[in-house]
Amino acid sequence: MHFVPKLALALGAALAPFAGPALAETDPSAIIRIGSLYEPQNLDNTAGAGQGINEAFNDNVYEALFRLNDDGSVVPVLAADHTVSEDGLTHTFTLQDGVTFHSGDPLTAADVKYSIERVLAEGSKSSRKSSLAPIAGIETPDDKTVVITLKSRSISLPYNLSYVWIVNDAATDITATEDGTGPYVLDGWKRGSAISLKAFDGYWGEKPKNSGATISYFTEAAALDNALLTDALDLVTTIQSPDALAQFEDPSRFTISEGNSTVKEIMAYNDRVAPFDNVQVRKALARGIDKAKLLEAIWGDRGMVLGSFVPPTDPWYEDLTGVDAYDPESAKALLAEAGYPDGFTFTLDTPNYDPHPITAEFIKAELAKIGVTVNINIITANEWYTKVYQAKDFQATLQEHVNHRDVVFYGNPDFYWGYNNADVTRLIAEAEEVATEEEHTAKLREANRIIAEEAASNWFFLYPQIVVSAANVTGYPVNGLNSQFFLRGIEKSK
Amino acid sequence: MKRNLWIGIVLVGLNAAVALLTLVWLPYGPAEMAGGRLSPPSWAHPAGTDRLGRDYLTQVMIGARIAMTVGIGATLLGGLIGTTLGVLAAFARRGLDDALAATLDILIAFPTLLLAMLVVAASDGASLWTAILAIGLAMSAIIARLVRILTKRVLTQDYITAARCSGLGWGRITFAHILPNIFPTILVALALQFGLAVIAEASLSYLGLGTPPPNASWGQLLQQAQSTVFRAPMGVIAPGLALVSLVLGINFLADGLRDLIDSDGEALTPDEDLELGVKGPLP
User: Fold this and answer.
1) Distance to chain B for A256, nearest Cα, Å
2) What is the dotted CATH code of the domain comprising B3-23+61-265?
3) How many domains does chain A contain in total?
4) How many Cβ atoms are within 10 Å of B158's Cβ, its own excluded?
5) What is the ipTM score, two decimals?
């Protein structure tokens, strides 16, 4: 199990930037130059802006009642105090004192109510709309107090609220401008080129360790890497391939950090159709593929093998790689038991971009050894959405699932993969309605174990989150959960 | 000058020989993970290996077979449909001829990529045959337009009138006089289109609309090697060189053929020259 020490290594790396290695004197007036591939479509996260807006604005320009930290923990930010009633249906939040928006308006309870309602509004395209569905009403007894009443208990409420930007209720349209409470204000947005942020003088909390940042957007990974090589950037937020890293291997010039992403490469079966409705068949296919070898082919010595859909940054993570470890002989035996002694043939719908085609070829070669024939059908991302996701017209497919805390998808029998286990559906529904974090975690852990035991899908590996920076830049987030990229801790030495 | 012709014959011959060789022998199995991840070129793997440890040379050789198959298939299909349509249009009455000519122009302007997506959507999925069909159809419009012009020119010749007077039917005239007369020019055009078909196939499989994996087409090899170009440049260079050698060879061959025809005194008009090289079946 060679990935266990690697995980420890990754966690070590995660802490290292905050430990602050003894470097030359840091420069608090530095503007950090960041390169990214994800330019937002607009500046409003409820208007279909894309993941780029989370990267640029979450906790930088806008703050929320809670923050999802880089290690996966959820901590209060604008909420100074949070109490829950006995029945779990009434949540009372007291706001931080002395918080002002960038426009100068003080933060009031009305702003919070307005901000949550913005996400829940009819035309909102927020991906978190459905997770906030239990909210029945929001009241503001006074300027500092927000009371949220729920239709049913929702233990993930603080987590879900970490996605809700607190916006000044006087701001009407924030698609091209902003009015948040964060440590940075928007200094300029050149569409197609860059967003610049500068430190906000009236920030209520601790001052950031730099005076601003420019996030430059690239459409080509190679151009992005070149910009860092030629010192046009201080840091790039994601490296897409391990083979691009060779250019940055000089430690006197660059730091390569590897964290855990939430991007999972999986083969999802259509669990409704034969032979994938048979647990033994799914387990056989899980045992028939050498995941470690696949991971090595795609990410070299980075990333980690998965035994289930849950990455280590989810609190209910558990190492389940041993459940159906690579074992072609037992895979064949399972197939025979399931009534397929001579194997079978299935079509694998494969998105046409890396790493899916090469993954499909590897699976085809691996499964051939246990007598299963794979027909690779290459499709576009659009076809995947209409044919696989919407019409559910497929046998098996490859996909990278990017969301954080998304094991709950297995609790929805109508999801595209059609996994339907009454216990799992119940556990996932119950998990949301428990009183404590511990129970929540325990229920999801139990559900996850059942899903793994039944090999609901074939989970291959977790992508590494690779950030490369100039050697004199430290203090950036290494996991980038939910695509966030916190700027306030970044230091650049002279 | 027959130099062009010879260069062409050698380059195309080499590709054809490799394609034929793959039917009976390959250095490694197509899916055999024989080496390490991205091994550099060595005696065992002259072009190195890909991320799964598969031999690049083996894949490039299989790519030659796919390129030749698609090239030949599409050219035959395009030539057959194109010639038939072109001759028919030339014989048609004024109104119908105009309509056909306009249709051909529209077809030529229709992107091959879109056509390929339509063909793939109409069938079970992308395959060697959908690629041949899409490229062949796109090519047929170009050939048809050329055949129509050439046939019209031949039709004004005195010997056609003479043949008509001697009581020959249009069918006989077509096979005895028109086709033999326009054949050399069509041959050159088909040769050029063959080269463009090879490039079109590479583009389609680059986008996943061609031969499905694991049958390594050059376009697909290029696509897969793209992310590892810094670590293993041979993954891009080898299929790239192969593609260039075949397309260049075919163009030399076509040039040589044209020189041969020109020296026989059948010089092409500037219009026809344009027709030959103006557009291939590429988006």
Assistant:
1) 17
2) 1.10.3720.10
3) 1
4) 7
5) 0.76
